[in-house]
């Protein structure tokens, strides 16, 4: 298996782990999920760089995916979790996107082209 295919499997694994942590164990701490954003950025950086071979489009696509994930998180909170004690915070979103960005840089570097 090549690196982009392994990265796709890694993304799927991260998603499944996060869903288990939320729904089975009730973990909703933003600090718990921060490493997930960094690692997802690495995986997406590897995948998008393999597709585009352009570091700038790779960064753009990863940040776009990060924004879409933040929208997903908000919708999950609003319509599925419906818990008043946990509400996504603006600073958490900024931190998550920054970690996505840093992870993408590492992913491009690991792809050997940066």
**Sheet with the most strands?**
none
The gross shape turns out to be globular
Supply the helix-strand structural class.
mainly alpha
Uncertain regions spanning at least 5 consecutive residues: none
Helix segment count? 4
Residues in helix, %: over 70%
Radius of gyration, whole Å: 14 Å
Count the E strands: 0
Which range does the strand content fall in?
Answer: under 5%
Mean pLDDT: 86
Question: SSE string, helix = H, strand = E?
Answer: HHHH
State the separation between the terminal residues, measured CA to CA: 22 Å
Short summary of the structure?
The chain is an all-alpha fold and 114 residues long. The protein has 4 helices and no strands.
Description:
This protein is mostly helical and 114 residues long. The chain contains four helices and no strands. The protein has helices at 3-23, 30-52, 55-81, 90-110. Helix 2 (30-52) packs antiparallel against helix 3 (55-81), helix 2 (30-52) crosses helix 4 and helix 3 (55-81) packs antiparallel against helix 4 (90-110). The longest helix is centred in the middle third of the chain and has 27 residues, at 55-81. It is globular, with a radius of gyration of 14 Å. The two termini are 22 Å apart.
Give the topology, please.
Elements: H1 3-23, H2 30-52, H3 55-81, H4 90-110
Helix pairs in contact: 1-2, 2-3, 2-4, 3-4
Q: Tags for this entry?
A:
4 helices, 114 residues, single chain, mainly alpha
């Amino acid at each position: 298996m090549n690196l982009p295919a392994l990265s796709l499997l890694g993304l799927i694994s991260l998603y499944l782990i996060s869903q288990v942590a939320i729904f089975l164990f009730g973990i909703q701490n933003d600090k718990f999920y921060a490493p997930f954003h960094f690692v997802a950025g690495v995986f997406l950086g590897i995948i998008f760089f393999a597709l585009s071979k352009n570091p700038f489009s790779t960064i753009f696509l990863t940040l776009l995916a990060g924004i879409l994930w933040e929208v997903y998180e908000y919708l999950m909170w609003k319509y599925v979790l419906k818990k008043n004690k946990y509400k996504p915070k603006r600073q958490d979103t900024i931190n998550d996107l920054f970690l996505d960005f840093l992870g993408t840089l590492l992913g491009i570097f690991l792809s050997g082209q940066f």
